[in-house]
TrEMBL record:
InterPro entries: Alkaline_phosphatase_core_sf, ARSB, Sulfatase_CS, Sulfatase_N
Upper taxonomic lineage: Eukaryota, Metazoa, Chordata, Craniata, Vertebrata
Record-level Gene Ontology MF annotations: metal ion binding; sulfuric ester hydrolase activity
Pfam families in the cross-refs: Sulfatase
Cofactor(s) this protein cannot do without: Ca(2+)
Xref: SUPFAM superfamilies: Alkaline phosphatase-like (SSF53649)
CDD domains named in the record: 4-S
The organism's place on the tree of life at top rank: Eukaryota
Keywords recorded for this protein, A-Z: Calcium, Glycoprotein, Hydrolase, Membrane, Metal-binding, Transmembrane, Transmembrane helix
All copies of domain Sulfatase N-terminal, residue ranges: 70-382
Disordered, as annotated region: 526-593
Protein name listed in UniProt: Arylsulfatase J
Gene name linked to the record: Arsj
Length: 593
């Protein structure tokens, strides 16, 4: 496998590098020599030479002055199943992920959310969904919705302490207003897609018949110049290399790399199918090829970090955004459930930290860690400050990961979704008068996990299900939920596969967890899930998905006049208590328990 096969070689060091400390001029000359070698010997020999000369890069880079703040690299894969990494027993080859994880710290009690938008919103705000109004589903392309603007984002906090902030890849946090775009939420640059999925080569997405558009952006504009049919995993990796090549490594950088892979549609360059012709299931075979390309891309990102002098002072965090989808080739075996569910297969993720700055390398962390924890952890590492009045749901877990100390986290609110389809047999009675078990919710407190309502598809899908033998081979693993069932309790430490429901055996623990759910729910904000806006159609925006919402001047003036009249009218009256704020086009969806 060529070293740079999935993304190409890194660009040479920029002209401004000549002013950097140390022997950067020599590095630039070395880069120029390598460019000549590319011309002389071709693409493959370039990659081979890069591997041989990597030690020279590191030696030169080590002579620079390192910033006290570490470089922060957060890599988010899309829809990677829990089993779909070599060190979890997968048949898919992931040598880069295996090596980085083995030399770092594997997170084996690590949780995310079951779908795209919720995980991304919690990572970038450090808050549960119930505290941002995004507790239901995802942000859809046609909805006038985005991550609430009153939330300080992770890149905004890092910029406050001198970081250069760059995002490459999938946004999926809303874009109906310009203020919602990544460059308005703290990123100096953005190159990627706004939606949740799309074609890997053409970068087009159809949300429904007649609602199709182009979805590739360079900062705030459609990136038509990059419409060259390049596979997105390769294209995003090339952009990361360019960013690193042009950045001064003595200045701290935050790179958020949110790959589209391995989300559907299942597409991959032909050469990555070579090792998987024995996989009969076509979706699994395509998925395996996509993951192999992703693994190679991360190898190339790591090489670029070393080549341009970032690696020794960097922290690389790798995470999937949710569990895999078996119907689209993903595997969460031996966990129960899949993407979109609150069973372990939907929310327990592949994750690890790789860094020369770790104190205990080559270890496994089994302490409780959640995706909201990255927000305070990274801000603390960056020597930043979190405002005293900011109510976060995440914890600083760096000492837990780096030194093996106990996690400050003892519970996780997986979610409370008051809009999701109610369980037919759920009731207040089933919840001991504490909680309506018709409501979809899930919570983890120490070893215990409680689910209520309709948790979603609940099968265990073993590896043989991807063969041509079909369901007959694994029918005994299928589960039909009892018609009277709306509450489950598991000891996840003892039973991580959720095979033994203990809700009837330990009613006292059930009640305690229901009370904790009720306490969390009292802090929830109204759900933000507005209806479709026809103005979102790309045909009205030059064929591009992008911001469409514009407040009419007349409406603005009318509201202003109305407010002024109301102010005059109530000037001499007793001031009344203001009503609770609610989202536009949405009724208050807080459950009062």
């Amino acid at each position: 496998m060529a070293a740079w096969g999935c993304a190409g070689p890194p660009p040479p060091l920029p002209a401004q590098a000549r002013g950097w400390p140390g022997r950067v001029v020599a590095m630039a000359a070395l880069a120029g020599f390598w460019v000549l070698s590319l011309i002389a010997y071709g693409y493959l020999s370039f990659g081979q030479r890069l591997e041989k000369e990597e030690g020279s890069w590191r030696a030169l880079a080590s002579e620079r002055l390192e910033p006290s703040q570490p470089h922060l690299i957060f890599i988010l894969a899309d829809d990677q199943g829990f089993r779909d990494v070599g060190y979890h027993g997968s048949e898919i080859r992931t040598p880069t992920l295996d090596k980085l994880a083995a030399e770092g710290v594997k997170l084996e009690n690590y949780y995310v959310q079951p779908i795209c938008t919720p995980s991304r919103s919690q990572f970038i705000t450090g808050k549960y969904q119930i505290h941002t109004g995004l507790q239901h589903s995802i942000i859809r392309p046609t909805q006038p919705n985005c991550l609430p603007l009153d939330n300080a984002t992770l890149p905004q906090k890092l910029k406050e302490v001198g970081y250069s902030t760059h995002m490459v890849g999938k946004w999926h946090l809303g874009f109906y207003r310009k203020e919602c775009m990544p460059t308005k939420r703290g990123f100096d640059t953005f190159f990627g897609s706004l939606l949740g999925s799309g074609d890997y080569y053409t970068h087009y997405k159809c949300d429904s018949p007649g609602m199709c558009g182009y979805d590739l952006y360079e900062n705030d504009n459609a990136a038509w110049d990059h419409d060259n049919g390049i596979y997105s995993t390769q294209m995003y990796t090339q952009r990361v290399q360019q960013i690193l090549a042009s950045h001064n490594p003595t200045k701290p950088i935050f790179l958020y790399i949110a790959y589209q892979a391995v989300h559907s549609p299942l597409q991959a360059p032909g050469k990555y199918f070579e090792h998987y012709r024995s996989i009969i299931n076509i979706n699994r075979r395509r998925y395996a090829a996509m993951l192999s390309c992703l693994d190679e891309a991360i190898h190339n990102v790591t090489l670029a970090l070393k080549a341009y002098g970032f690696y020794n002072n960097s922290i690389i965090i790798y995470s999937s955004d949710n569990g895999g989808q078996p119907t689209a080739g993903g595997s969460n075996w031996p966990l129960r459930g899949s993407k979109g569910t609150y069973w372990e297969g939907g929310i327990r993720a592949v994750g690890f930290v790789h860094s020369p700055l770790l104190k205990n390398k080559g270890t496994v962390c089994k302490e409780l860690v959640h995706i909201t924890d990255w927000y305070p952890t990274l801000i603390s590492l960056a020597e930043g400050q979190i405002d005293e009045d900011t109510q976060l749901d995440g914890y600083d877990v760096w000492e837990t990961i780096s030194e093996g100390l106990r996690s400050p986290r003892v519970d996780i609110l997986h979610n409370i979704d008051p809009i999701y389809t109610k369980a037919k047999n759920g009731s207040w009675a089933a919840g001991y008068g504490i909680w309506n078990t018709a409501i979809q919710s899930a919570i983890r407190v120490q070893h215990w996990k409680l689910l209520t309502g309709n948790p979603g598809y609940s099968d265990w899908v073993p590896p043989q299900s991807f063969s041509n033998l079909g369901p007959n081979r694994w029918h005994n693993e299928r589960i039909t939920l009892s018609t009277g069932k709306s509450i489950w309790l598991f000891n996840i430490t003892a039973d991580p596969y959720e095979r033994v429901d203990l809700s009837s055996r330990y009613p006292g623990i059930v009640k305690k967890l229901l009370k904790r759910l009720s306490q969390f729910n009292k802090t929830a904000v109204p759900v933000r899930y507005p209806p479709k806006d026809p103005r979102s159609n790309p045909r009205l925006n030059g064929g591009v998905w992008g911001p469409w919402y514009k407040e009419e001047n007349k409406k603005r003036k009318a509201n202003k006049n109305k407010a002024e009249k109301k102010k005059k009218k109530s000037k001499n009256k007793k001031k009344k208590q203001p009503k609770a704020r609610s989202s536009p086009n949405c009724h208050s969806c807080i459950i009062h328990g």
